[in-house]
Design brief:
Helix content: 40-55%
Largest sheet: 2 strands, parallel
Distance between the termini: 62 Å
Structural class: mainly alpha
Strand order of the largest sheet: 1-2
Strand content: 5-15%
Oligomer: single chain
Radius of gyration: 31 Å
Length: 605
């Protein structure tokens, strides 16, 4: 049994090694020799809790670490620092991390309770934080023994996991030791076991992760990012196993990061900003190869970072979208060229572009007419010329066209959009009209801006971009499909019409007799040209009074009416206009905030 052949079983036979072997094992790369790439599940019955039957045999009272409290742990640490005798802490830590059962003994709030709900993991998080804060300040020898104990607990992985096992995974995931590259082999196996859990177990973990404090949550994200970056671009490649032998490392880490992202998304406000899930190291990958691997999963290994778009920075997504757009432009230009040749016509350079010629005096109508005539050319490179004005468009005329068109369409007296001074945003006018083609033009305009990498001076509320991605891909061959409708909250309404939202919030907060005080029914008043009309929020709404019991329903329906229902036709035309240009699967990867950045540019610049 030599050092070279020592694998996972080394843990169980370490007493038979010579001191020389022990010294070799404790070197920088010891973890890779202790933990083989394929964990041995057959050993799961050799520890308390290795199976459901043996779980009951575990004697919690005999645990070395069971009696340790925060105060005694602090006291032991201070004494050890003074005396240099770390024996007490060594016993505590090696016992604590030696098995999933021990982890539960120490960190579970009440051993008599099961804690089988998603709301409460039943863990002593403050004590977990203390244990780890002290651990990173102990001697390296003690920290190595803890890592060996963790290896021991991971070797006992089971196919069926109890809620106690999930708690143990959650505790281990918070271990700050995994920020060091020398621990990456162990960290990789922890991540793989978590990634391989069932959807049911993942559901619990996602909700339990919400219980972490911001700084601890952020620290886990940073460690996983560093792990992914270190595996992709290792500072010293020789310190890690060959990439070919651990191709599962990055997919496992990314899947665990997805659980953290899901947990973060469930909370408002988020524990951390969504941009903290970006890994800028990935900007240096062949992003289009990642994109094509995602588009054609059958022809590749099956993993692509595009499957987990939260990890890709806005710069990476913009690069993918632009290159995908360029590719579509080339394809459309090539088709035009081939068609011209097939008709035996002489090709000209103009056919490779979307050429728009407009009069300044009829800017909107000419733009509408040109875009309507050239629907099949929208994915070509845009070039604009103004009638009667000589000059080639090298980009300046296109930008001027966008600027003038946006300025004219969004003028309040033009009637298409309203402007809220408090929120500082434009919104769609709910006034019905005979032709919604101009709203389609605005959608095309926004799509062309994204497609041609031009930022527009437009400010819509954030819910607009959620609606624009609802759904992110236009329903195929179904023109009657509902589009541009998203879930709405009072917070969303505040971004559109803050004063209306405040009035509705006051209604919710009112503790008196709502019906007698406000005299409201389930209907709203809508202004039309020179007139007003009432619109029911629900069937027979005019006859249903708003009371203290149903005021929440009234507020919800009112918000949905303003954001979705009252402007459905306008937004439907806008939605189809945008997607007629930006119909790309790359849009699926974008968050609403990221679409806004692509349209308007970064708010921080």
């Amino acid at each position: 049994h030599t050092n070279e052949t020592c694998g996972a079983n080394c843990i169980h036979h370490k007493k038979h090694h010579s001191s020389q072997n022990d010294a070799h094992r404790d070197g920088p790369g010891y973890s890779s020799r202790l933990l083989s790439p394929s964990l041995n599940r057959s050993q799961s019955s050799s520890y308390p809790g290795g199976s459901n039957d043996s779980k009951e045999e575990f004697n919690y009272k005999s645990s070395v670490a069971h009696a340790k409290t925060a105060e005694t742990l602090k006291e032991d640490f201070l004494n050890a620092k003074v005396s240099g005798n770390w024996k007490s802490l060594l016993e505590f830590y090696t016992s604590a991390f030696n098995s999933f059962d021990e982890l539960n003994v120490i960190f579970k709030r009440d051993l008599s309770k099961d804690y089988k709900t998603i709301e409460d993991p039943g863990l002593k998080f403050e004590f977990i934080n203390l244990v780890y804060d002290i651990l990173v300040n102990t001697p390296q020898g003690l920290q190595k023994e803890v890592l060996k104990a963790i290896i021991n607990s991971l070797l006992k992985d089971k196919r069926v996991h109890s809620k106690d096992d999930l708690r143990a995974f959650l505790v281990l995931l918070q271990n700050p030791q995994f920020r060091n590259q020398t621990t990456y082999v162990i960290f990789a196996h922890l991540l793989r076991q978590i990634a391989a859990l069932s959807d049911h177990d993942h559901h619990y973990l996602v909700h339990w992760l919400k219980s972490l404090k911001n700084d601890r949550f952020r620290a886990i994200i940073e460690r996983i990012h560093n792990f992914i970056s270190g595996r992709l671009f290792p500072p010293k490649p020789g310190d890690l196993p060959p990439l070919a032998k651990c191709s599962w490392w990055i997919p496992s880490a990314t899947k665990v990061l997805a659980l953290l992202n899901a947990a973060n998304s469930l909370l408002i406000p988020h524990l951390v900003p969504y941009v903290e899930f970006y890994n800028s190291t990935l900007d240096h990958l062949d992003l289009m190869a990642e994109y094509y691997a995602w588009q054609n999963p059958s022809s590749h290994a099956g993993f692509s970072f595009c499957q987990y778009p939260f990890i890709l920075s806005i710069a990476a997504k913009k690069s993918i979208l632009q290159k995908d757009s360029e590719q579509q432009m080339i394809i459309m230009a090539r088709k035009s060229l081939v068609a011209k040749v097939q008709r035996r016509q002489l090709p000209d350079i103009g056919m490779l572009f979307l050429n728009l010629t407009v009069r300044r005096s009829h800017l909107v109508s000419d733009s509408l007419s040109e875009i309507a005539k050239k629907q099949h050319d929208l994915k070509k490179k845009l070039k604009v010329s103004f009638a009667g004005e000589p000059g080639l468009d090298m980009g300046g005329l296109t930008k001027e066209w966008f600027l003038l068109l946006v300025r004219q369409i969004f003028m309040p007296n033009y009637g298409m959009f309203t402007y809220d001074k408090v929120a500082g945003v434009h919104w769609f006018s709910p006034t019905p009209c005979d032709n919604y083609q101009e709203f389609n033009l605005v959608g095309v305009l926004m799509g062309l801006a994204v497609y041609n990498s031009i930022n527009l001076d437009i400010r819509f509320p954030s819910v607009c971009y959620r609606k624009l991605l609802s759904p992110a891909v236009v329903p195929f061959n179904n023109p009657r499909a509902t589009v541009g409708v998203c879930s709405v909250s009072l917070h969303d309404l505040k971004g559109v019409k803050p004063e209306v939202a405040k009035g509705l919030q006051d209604l919710l907060d009112f503790e008196g007799d709502v019906e007698e005080t406000f005299c409201l029914t389930f209907e709203v008043v809508q202004s039309t040209v020179g007139d007003t009309k009432t619109v029911p929020l629900k069937p027979n709404g005019r006859s249903i009074p708003v009371t203290s019991d149903n005021k929440k329903e009234y507020v919800q329906l009112y918000a949905e009416w303003i954001v979705n229902n009252s402007i459905y036709s306008q937004f439907q035309a806008f939605y189809h206009g945008f997607h007629s240009v930006c119909a790309s699967n790359a849009l699926i990867m974008l968050r609403p905030e990221e679409v806004e950045t692509l349209v308007c540019g970064s708010p921080t610049l």
